[in-house]
Fold this sequence. Notes:
- The chain is of the alpha/beta class.
- It has 9 helices and 7 strands.
- It has one domain (3-257): Rossmann fold, CATH 3.40.50.
- It comes from Pontibacillus halophilus JSM 076056 = DSM 19796.
Amino acid sequence: MKTACITGASTGIGRQYAYTLAEKGYNLIIVSRSQDKLDAIADDLQVRYGVKVLVIATDLSERNAPENVYQRIKNEGLQIDLLVNNAGSGNTGKLLESSLEKNHQQVMLNVNAVVKLTHLVLEEMVERQEGDIINVASMASFQPIPYMSIYAATKSFVLSFSEGLHEEYKDDGIRILAVCPGNTETNFFDHAPDSIKVGKMRTAHQVVETSLRALHRNKSSVIDGRSNVMTALLPRLLSRSIVARVSAQLMKKSMKNG
Length: 258
C-alpha cells in the first residue's frame, strides 16, 4: 500500500484529503497542531478503511518542525508516495496591525514548511523515480490582496514554486501539482473577509477530487471550479495597480461590514 503525508490534516481540505485518500487505500501520515483532532480522525479512518495512520502533532511554523516531522517519518521506516502540503494560515488587516512574530509565523508556515518538506521528500522520490506532490495554493495566488498581503504573496509563491518544480522534475517520474481553491466550505473561509469569497461555494471534497484528477493528468496547476477559472483570468486583463486598488476597496468594505 502507498503512503500519503498530509499537513493541516485536522480540518477542512486537509481533513478531506485524509478521508479521500484512505478510501482509495493509502496509509496515512497526518500532521497538524491539534493532537486530539488528529487522534479522532486516525481512529475513525482505521475503523472505516482499515488503513494505518501515523499522527504527528506539531506546529509547522516553527523553524525546524519540517525536519523533525521528516525524521519522525524516517524513524518509523515509512516512505512517502504522496505529499500534500496543505497547512497554511492568513491574517487580515494592515501589515503593522499584526505583530512581527505573527507575520513571520505566517511566512514560515505558508512558505518555509512547504519548501522544506518538498525538498526532503523530493530527494527520495527522485532516487526512486516515482512520487507525487500536491501543494495547496489559492485563488489569492493570482493577484495582490491588500489587507491580506502576506497571505496572497505566499500563495503566489506556492503556485509559482509548484509550476517551476513540475517542469524541473517531470522527466524524473515525479508529478507536482498546485491546486488553487476558491470559496470553500472550511473554517478558513468561515472567518475570511467577504471580499475574497468570490464565486460559488465549493466543498472540500470537490477541491480534493479536482486536484486528484489533475494530478492523474500530470498537470502543473489546476483551479477548482469553472467560475473560479474566469475569476483568475480577470486580473490579467487589467494593470496590477488597478487590480490592487480594486482589491483594497473590496477588502476595506468587507472588513468594515464584518
